[in-house]
Write a structure and sequence with these properties.
The complex is a heterodimer of chains A (94) and B (558).
Chain A lengths: L7 E7 L4 H15 L6 E7 L4 H6 L7 E3 L6 E3 L5 H10 L4
Parallel strand pairs in A: 1-2
Antiparallel strand pairs in A: 1-3, 3-4
Helix pairs in contact in A: 1-3
Chain B lengths: L2 E2 L6 H4 L4 E2 L3 E6 L5 H14 L5 E5 L4 H8 L6 H6 L2 E5 L6 E3 L6 H14 L3 E5 L2 H4 L4 H18 L2 E7 L10 H8 L2 E10 L2 E11 L9 E6 L2 E4 L7 H4 L5 E2 L4 H6 L4 E2 L3 E6 L5 H14 L4 E5 L4 H9 L6 H6 L2 E5 L7 H15 L3 E5 L9 H19 L2 E7 L14 H4 L2 E10 L2 E11 L9 E6 L2 E6 L1 E3 L2 E3 L1 H65 L6 H9 L5
Parallel strand pairs in B: 3-8, 3-9, 4-5, 4-7, 7-8, 15-19, 15-20, 16-17, 16-18, 18-19
Antiparallel strand pairs in B: 1-2, 9-10, 10-11, 11-12, 13-14, 20-21, 21-22, 22-23, 24-25
Classes of the chains: A alpha+beta (94), B alpha/beta (558).
Amino acid sequence: MNASNEAIPLLLFVVGDAPRTAVAVENLRLALTEFRDRKFQLEIVDVFENAGRAIADRVLVTPTLLAPGSSRRLVGDLSEKSQLRYFLQTLDGL
Amino acid sequence: MLTSPSGIGGLDQVLHGGFPSGRTMAVIGGPGCGKTMLAMQFLVNGWTQFGEPGLMVSFEESPSTLAANFTEMSFPFSEAVGGGVFLLDGRVPIDTVESGSFDLGGLIAVVSSLAAERGVKRIAIDAIDALFAFSGAGFRRMEFLRVLDWLAESNLTALLTVKGGEGDSGVPGFFRLAEYASDGVLQLRRRTIGELSRRTLSVVKMRGAGFEAGEHPYVISNEGIRVLHTPTSTTSLVDRLGVRLSSGVERLDRMLVGGYRSGTTTLISGLPGTAKTTLGAAFLDAGCRAGERCLFLGFDEPAEQMIVDVRSVGIDLAQHVNSGLLRAESYAGGSVIADDHYLTIEALIDAHRPNRIVIDPISAFEKAGGLEISGVVAERIVALLKSRGISAIFTAVTETQRGEIEATPTRVSTIADTWINLSFANQGGERNRTLTIVKSRGTGHSNQMREMLLSADGIDLADVYSSGGDVLLGTARVQREQQDVVKQAVAAVNLSHELETLDREREELALRLTDTKRGLDQIAAHRAELLERAEVAGGTHVRDAALIHVMRRGDPTE
C-alpha cells in the first residue's frame, strides 16, 4: 500500500513520570526511527491529567500504545522490540 | 466505626449497620453466588437511599451487559445509573498484546479522577481477577496490592469481588491474597440440595468492627439479594401474653381457658382431611370480625379455593378480603428453597402488618430443601413472628397415624406454644374427626379429647362418651345419646305415674274429709235440737252436754 505521505497517528497512554513511562517513551522513539519511509505522529497522554480520554479508549493499564482506528493495542513498556516492530509495521495496512 | 449501609435487607443487620466506611471489603464467592448483584445493590442503594455517588469498575462485563442484566430488576438501577452511579468498563480489549512490563497506574489515575470529579463515596471493583488472568504471579500480587493501597488511602468505601472459595474457579491463589490484604471478607457460598440451590453468606473477617457470626442464608430474586436475618428482640411480646384471642370456635376457646394467647404460635397437626385449614380459617374469621388484620399463606391449594371450601362450613372469608383486613396468598411449594418462603413471609408481613397469620401447611417447607433447612427456617419464622407480636397458626400434615402424639418432622411441635392434634377415630365402620390439645404453654387447658363436628353452621366440638374405657364418636356417640334419651323417657313415665297415684290418694282423702265434715255438721244440728227439747221438758236450764255430764257424775250411783 502506498499511503506514504500521510502521518500515522499513535497514542501512548502513560501515568505521570514513572520510570516505566520513560522506558516506554524511549523504546517507542527508537523504534520509530527505524521507519525511514513512514511518518508517525505520536501523542503522549498522561492519564492523570486526562482521565476522560483513557475512559473513552478503555485504557486502565499503563503504558498502553494504540493507533486510533485500529482495534489492536500494545500494553507494557514496549521492551519486547519484535512485538513493537510488528505492531508498527502492520499499521501500514490502515 | 462508621458504616455505609448496603440497603440490602438483612445484610446490614448481619454487618451491624453496613460495610465499614472508608475501608475495603472483599466479597469472595464462586460463580452464581451473586457477587456482582451484591456490589451493584451496594452502589444503587448508596445513591438512591443515602445520596452517595458510586462507581462500578467492571472487569468482566461491559456496561451494556450490566445494564441488560440489571434494568429488569425491581431496584432502581436505571435511576441510579442515570444519576450518581457510574459504570466503568474495565475489560481488557481483545486485541491487546503484551510488550514488556506494565501496571495499573492507568486504572488508579482514571478512578481517582472520576472519584474527585463526581464526589464518589462508594466503589465496587468487580472481578478484578479477570484482569490478572493473563499475567504472571509477580505482577498480579504487586498490582493488586497497588490497587488496595490506593483504595486504603482514598477514603472510599470499597467492595472488591473476587472469584474463589470452594472450587476456586478464579485465578489460583488469588482469593487468598484478597482475603488477607483487605479489611474484611464476606464469603458467599452456594450448594445444591436435591434440585434446589441454597446460598449462604458469612463474614470471615472484619477488622475493628462487629458482625453477626455464622452462616446467613440469602436468596436472589428480581428484588436482588435479601439476607435472612432473624430479629432477637421480643420485648414487645411480654405484656401481650395475657391477652386471649378467640379461636373462632367457642367450645375450643373454653378448652383453652379463653382462647389462644396473643403473640404465640399454635401448631395444628393432623392427617389430610382432618380440617386443619378449616380451623385456621375460623381463627382468621374471628380475627377479622374483631377488626384485626390477618394474613393467610397457603402452600397446598390456591387461596381462592380455600376461601370457597370453608364457605361450606359457614365461614365467609371473602367479605374480609373485600374489606382489606384479610390478605390471602398462595404459593407453589416445590420449586423454591425454604429460605425463599421465609423472605416471602417477611415481605408480606412488612406489607400487610397482620395481627394474625395462618401458614398452611408449614410442612410444605420440608419439600423446600429437606428437614434440616426447613426446621431452621421454621424456627426463624417463629422468632420473626414473636418479634412482631403476631399470633400464628401453623398447620402441619402428618403422614401416618401413630397414636395420639404425632411428632412433626420440622420440629415445629417443640417450638410452638400450643399444639392441637386432629385425628380420625375409626369405630363402628366410621371415621370421625377428633381434636386433642397436646400442649399449651403457660396456660391451663382441657385434657379431654373432643369430637369435631363440621356443619353449615360452623365448627363445633362435642363431648366424647366414655364407655368401658373407650371413647364413643359419631354414630356410636349418637346411639349412646339415644339410649340416654330412652332412659330419661322411661324415668319420666314412672314419675308421672307416681304423681297420678298421689293425686288419686289426695282426692280420696279430700272426699272423705268432705263426708266427715258433713257428719259433724249433722251431729251438731241434732245436738242443738236435743238441747232445746231438754229445756222445754224439765224446766231446768241445761246449757250444754258438759253440765249434764257433771250432774250425772254427781249422782251417788257408784
